[in-house]
């Protein structure tokens, strides 16, 4: 089963990691996590998946995505990419351009995962755009409200 992850940057890592553990504990099939290598939910989900020896698909929106990040976030980024269970997918091999993150979301949605889990408070956001793209592609979407720990 292939599950995509999206979410706001400020969701606590432990919340995301617990959701990944919960999903994995309920599945008797191989699990792959798709994510866009953004700070926050994406990297937390990838780290937890790799810790559990699951497969990860890392969708990278542009070359140098991590250049402006703090060094600790860059270290996390490169650690995920270097892992043997990570498949790297460049959605652009150019430097940042306007719209590259939207293109990444569209590419991930067209990969047709079985489910998108979105850690989202508001649809007026990049995560909201991602949810919309996945719905257009007919992918089942589960929204998790991080502060309330509620699924919708």
What's this entry about, in short?
This protein is 38% helix and 22% strand. The protein has helices spanning 13-25, 41-51, 71-82, 100-110, 126-136, and strands at residues 2-7, 32-35, 55-60, 86-90, 115-119, 140-145, 150-151.
Highlighted features:
Rossmann fold; alpha/beta; 7 strands; 152 residues; 7-stranded mixed β-sheet; 5 helices; 38% helix
Would you write up a description of this structure?
There is one protein chain. This protein is an alpha/beta fold and 152 residues long. It has one domain: Rossmann fold. The protein is 38% helix and 22% strand. It has a 7-stranded mixed sheet, sandwiched between helices. Strand 2, helix 2 and strand 3 form a beta-alpha-beta unit. The mean pLDDT is 93.
Secondary structure layout plus pairing:
Blueprint (H helix, E strand, L loop, with lengths): L1 E6 L5 H13 L6 E4 L5 H11 L3 E6 L10 H12 L3 E5 L9 H11 L4 E5 L6 H11 L3 E6 L4 E2 L1
Parallel strand pairs: 1-2, 1-5, 2-3, 3-4, 5-6
Antiparallel strand pairs: 6-7
Helix pairs in contact: 1-2, 4-5
């Amino acid at each position: 089963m292939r599950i995509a992850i999206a979410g706001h940057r400020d969701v606590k890592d432990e919340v995301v990691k617990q959701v990944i553990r919960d999903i994995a504990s309920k599945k008797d099939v191989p699990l792959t996590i798709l994510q866009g290598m953004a700070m926050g939910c994406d990297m937390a989900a990838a780290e937890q998946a790799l810790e559990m020896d699951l497969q990860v698909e890392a969708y990278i929106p542009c070359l140098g995505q991590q250049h402006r990040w703090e060094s600790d976030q860059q270290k996390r980024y490169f650690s995920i990419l270097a892992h043997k269970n990570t498949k790297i997918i460049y959605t652009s091999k150019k430097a940042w351009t306007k719209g590259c993150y939207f293109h990444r979301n569209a590419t991930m949605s067209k990969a047709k995962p079985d489910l998108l889990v979105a850690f989202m408070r508001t649809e007026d956001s990049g995560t909201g755009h991602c949810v919309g793209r996945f719905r257009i592609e007919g992918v089942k979407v589960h929204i998790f409200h991080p502060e309330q720990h509620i699924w919708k």
